[in-house]
């Protein structure tokens, strides 16, 4: 019997974690945040990106025509 706890969906991502999820460079994520393209929340000096904002960003991307 396994006692492993399944991973909980992450609600907030650091820019570094968001970059890994998006497969972008960390500096690209910061550029998107600075341009207002990728929304984030700020508490003190920390910036976090909500999972819903990552999903909204990905959904806003236009697919390349064939």
Outline of this structure?
The chain is an alpha+beta fold and 66 residues long.
List the helices and strands and how they pair.
Layout: E1 12-13, H1 15-22, H2 26-35, E2 41-43, E3 46-50, H3 51-60
Antiparallel strand pairs: 1-3, 2-3
Query: Roughly what percent helix?
Result: 40-55%
Count the domains: 1
What oligomeric state do these chains adopt? Answer: single chain
Q: How do the strands line up in the largest sheet?
A: 1-3-2
Q: Kindly state the mean pLDDT as a whole number?
A: 90
- Give the helices and strands as they follow along the chain: EHHEEH
Number of helices: 3
Envelope shape? globular
Q: What's the alpha carbon Rg, rounded to whole Å? A: 14 Å
Strand content: 15-25%
- Runs in which pLDDT lies below 50 for 5 or more consecutive residues are none
Distance between the termini: 49 Å
Per DSSP E runs of 2 or more residues, the count of β-strands stands at 3
- Overall structural class, as computed from helix and strand content, comes to alpha+beta
Largest sheet descriptor = 3 strands, antiparallel
What does this protein look like?
The mean pLDDT is 90. The protein has one domain. With 66 residues, it is α+β, with helices and mostly antiparallel strands. Strands 1-3-2 form a 3-stranded antiparallel sheet. A hairpin with a 2-residue loop joins strand 2 (41-43) and strand 3 (46-50). The chain is globular, with a radius of gyration of 14 Å. The N and C termini lie far apart (49 Å). Helix content is 42%, strand content 15%. Helix 1 (15-22) crosses helix 2.
